[in-house]
Amino acid sequence: MEFIFNKITLIVSGVLFPFQSLPPVIGLAFLALVTAVFALLVYKTISNQAQIKIKKRRIFGHFFGIYLSRDELGLIIKEFIQVLRGIVLYLAYLLPPLLVVIVPVLLLCAQIQVRYGYDNLRPGDQVNVTLSLAPDVNILQTELKLETSDGVAIRTPALRIQALKEVTWRVEVKEQGDHTLTFTVGDTLLTKNLRALTQIDRIYPVTEETSFFSILAMPGDKTIPTGSNIISARIDYPERDINLLGLQLHWTIAFLILTLAFGLLLKKPLKVNF
Questions:
Q1: By percentage, how much of the chain surpasses pLDDT 70?
Q2: Residues forming a β-bridge with 193
């Protein structure tokens, strides 16, 4: 499973390589365009387009019937029931293509999150770096150490919280680059990248024990072997905002708006009814 997700990550990285130095909204718009085209083609191929067109006309017809029967409560109720019935049947025709589209889109969203969900650190930025340790580790007595590459400086000693099984350091970025943090917990060693780049690339705020969710949520990142003294390592990267027409939006909102916009624009050229 991890091998497959790693290959998907490499493919997406290759596709997005030309957008690394461009504003984030450009790459996100490209992915929204691809998603809209894919969804429309799947919808057109799998759904019953003729029946969808008929169901939509009937729903609007019953709405018009409600308007014409506005003085007859019994007829209004009858027409309203027909509207609800038509909507249920209409949604039933939407379900098969939705089931086909949802899995690839969720996988794509995980890829987008690690590229557009977090912002690069910059020289002068300070962030917390936290280890979560296994329940049987005595934080107060176990040897704990953090070492950094030349571009990062440790600003505080380890803050050990026995109740939470967590250890936190505060570090400062001194130079741009792809830096390395090396954690030592007893005889366990873990390395993690701290990214302070100028271009858009994958950023993994959390490295966790191997599980389906950790592989899905952080595609392409290494995982921690099960049974290790370390459960997770976290860097508190700032979240990235996407500038869409002057609005600062989370990537999920911007992506949804762009995908819907492309879907509406391409609906007629691709001859899709929905």
A1: 87
A2: 180
